[in-house]
Each structure stands twice: as structure tokens, then as C-alpha cells.
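Case study 2.
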Amino acid sequence: MQRTSDEIFVATDDGSSGHHGFVTQILQRLIDEMIKIDIVFAVGPLQMMKAVCNVTRPQKIHTMVSLNPVMVDGTGMCGSCRVTIGARTGCLY
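Prediction:
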């Protein structure tokens, strides 16, 4: 990421690396400061990625998240790997 990005911001709940707090706090600060953001990549817990999307959506900032749900049956038939985006639900595999 460092080779392809102008800036990288790291946040950890315990402060062990980067900002001590939520990544959405950094993101909202950048938006409030009117910093131009071309794209946001969010990788982590589902709730964090959802919170990031809730911050970027009103600003129409292109956002990519890492959706890696657990696949229980190995085929996608049980539905545990299904996600809903907007009004559409589908299997990621």
C-alpha cells in the first residue's frame, strides 16, 4: 500500500499502532478538513468496514472493503457466506 498510496492511516483500538481509536475518527477528521480523498480501502472487522462505508457514502467517496465471510459448508449452499449490499443479497463465492 505504501508504494501506491500518498498516505496511509492506521488506527488500533489499543493504540499499539497508529491512532488510538477508531479509523472512522481519522476518516471524519480528513473529510472535515476537506482533504481530497480518491479512494478508501477498509480491511478489518465487518462492523468497522460498515462504519467506514457509513462515513464515506454521504461524501460519495469510492470505498473498497474486504468481505471474507466464513463459509461453513464449503459450497455456499448453507447461506452463511451471503451478504446484503443495498437491496441485493448474494453469495461471495
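The chain is about 25% helix and 20% strand.
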